[in-house]
Amino acid sequence: MKNDLAPSKFRVGAAGKAFHLKDHATRLPRKIGKEELKQSVRADAERIGELQQLLYAERSRSLLLIFQAMDAGGKDSCIARVLRDVNPQGCQVTSYKAPSPEELDHDFLWRHAKAAPAKGMIGVHNRSHYEEVLVVKVHPGFLAGQHLPGISGAKDPGKSFWENRYASIRNFEEHLVRQGTTIMKFYLHMGKEAQKERFLERMEQPEKNWKFNAGDLKERTRWDNYMEAYDAAIRATATPEVLWYVVPADREWETRAVVCRCVREQLEAMAPQVPVPEESVRKALVEAARMLRAEQS
Fold first, then answer.
1. Is the pTM of this model over 0.70?
2. For 139-150, what is each residue's pLDDT tens digit?
């Protein structure tokens, strides 16, 4: 099973024009037992929790996990499983909805820069700045509300506009990397039929009715447009420094196992360490311990 979950099988780096989502499977090539994958998730999540403690103690680097998917793609449940053993003090999850009036008065990366993880933290962006080249590209009318020079109405602004946005995203992510943030970008790759099944579950099972949004069906009619937008975005922003991971998402237990393994191996490669105190600090600790022991009961 180890090879089936190897991160190298799902990485996309500097793909160029060769990348197309249709070339990537929505299920693992070899079927693995559900319970076996659940055990893998439990073991990897426990190890992630241990490594997160070291990252927090080290306090010199951070990890940013970005999750993108079509509606009902399983982002929330995947994030919950990956972080199940992480100390909440060392983790921040930010979920993005439509931008607020204040956010629209700033550039499209402003709110995402504010949520970048601090040193020692694991940050999670549930949806992200990529919505600006996905949803907004499929619905260019949203640009009218962003108060951009020369942009009005619902007309697509053209290829150069989107190329500039991709460049802004690359520059933003490369800046974070230079500051010590490792970025992992996950696209949970679910097929259209799997989405249909999950929508029906949300409609037909009372305990899941709250998850259903009628607007999701309207977006489903634009499936091909979204696939084209994802293709273009991943091609333009997958770099050797900031990789994409295209993760099979038809079966949620497979998705969680792959993402957990990718995050675990990335943290192990980062190898965070508990900092060694300077000599002056060490002497102060020795003296403090001596004073404490000398206290009279």
1. yes
2. 999 999 998 998
